[in-house]
Amino acid sequence: MNPQAQPPLWSEEELSADSAKAISRFRETRVQEPLELYLDHFDAHRRNIEDIFEKTCCLTRLRDQAHELLTRHGYLTEIRYLTSPSVSEDDLKVLTDAKLSHSYLEKNPGAAQSIIDVVLLGLDRERFPWLGENRMPTAEENTAAIVSTAALIANQKVQTARRSAAKNLQEDEVAKALLASGYVEVERRSVDNFSRIPGPGEFCKESLFGGRKADLVIGLWDGRAMPTECKVSNSSTNSVKRLNNDAAVKAKVWLREFGTASCIPAAVLSGVFKVHNLLSAQKNDLTIFWSHELETMISFIESTKN
């Protein structure tokens, strides 16, 4: 065992340089993204919203059609975006004390009514001014309301798909780098004690490591474990959530549960991160690697060999 193999500790200048490289790659990727994904979402949701408007007389009979809209047509997403801001599915579950599945709503018409009641309380009066003035919308108001609501949904769908795709790609790149260095992928598992840690030269994807989930759990050659998070950030504000409020918090939990002698919490980053947030996370014992330079991570792993 080589207890002297320590993970890299980056200076502010080094973190600043790598952050700049990550931002540059982020810009290149974002510019190349196709417009078609947004337009596909926009067209699909616009058709659904137009149908909702037709069935409810421009939302004036929304409550009367609650059960049909949510069960027969499955328009839950469009209906959630009638409020400002949109109401999440989790919030709806809490506010209505109901499940949102099709089978549950089918058997419980009252739950559909409760969902619509919550939506009506938060209805966006700027997009739908006629509802507060006891009248029907003008043709211009009708079109503007449908287009703006479809745009809101499409934008959020693209943002969600973008994050998911980027994260999956990042995890795949890390896995490929490990495999290329001689590692073997093993089954996912719940690592609740030392005996469950992947062996030296092994790794598993998305597994529960102690009390918190890790995107990958890597068994270092010297017997230590390196639970690793893959984090993609599209803004400096978002980086606080992804890095400091998530990955760094997990690092503290993992170190408390497994100890500094056996556990090296790490994060592989891509996108936009503020340097002072990187320094803060590193100070909290989170080892930082970058997607654009996975060779550094592999080099450290190799240094843990006997």
- Inertia-based shape: elongated
Low-confidence stretches: none
Fraction of residues in helices? 40-55%
CATH class of the largest domain: Alpha Beta
Q: How many individual β-strands?
A: 7
- Supply the helix-strand structural class: alpha/beta
Ends apart, CA distance between termini? 5 Å
SSE pattern: HHHHHHHHEEEEEHEHEH
Strand content: 5-15%
- Major beta sheet, specifics? 7 strands, mixed
Count of DSSP-assigned helices: 11
Describe the fold and architecture.
By secondary structure, the chain is an alpha/beta fold. It is built from eleven helices and seven strands. Strands 1, 2, 3, 4, 5, 6 and 7 form a seven-stranded mixed sheet that branches. A hairpin with a 5-residue loop joins β4 (212-219) and β5. The longest helix has 42 residues, at 139-180. GO terms for molecular function: DNA binding; type II site-specific deoxyribonuclease activity. This is Restriction endonuclease.
Layout of strands and helices, then pairs:
Blueprint: H1 12-32, H2 36-55, H3 66-72, H4 76-80, H5 89-96, H6 102-107, H7 109-121, H8 139-180, E1 184-185, E2 190-191, E3 202-209, E4 212-219, E5 225-233, H9 236-258, E6 266-271, H10 275-283, E7 287-290, H11 294-302
Helix pairs in contact: 1-10, 2-8, 3-7, 9-10
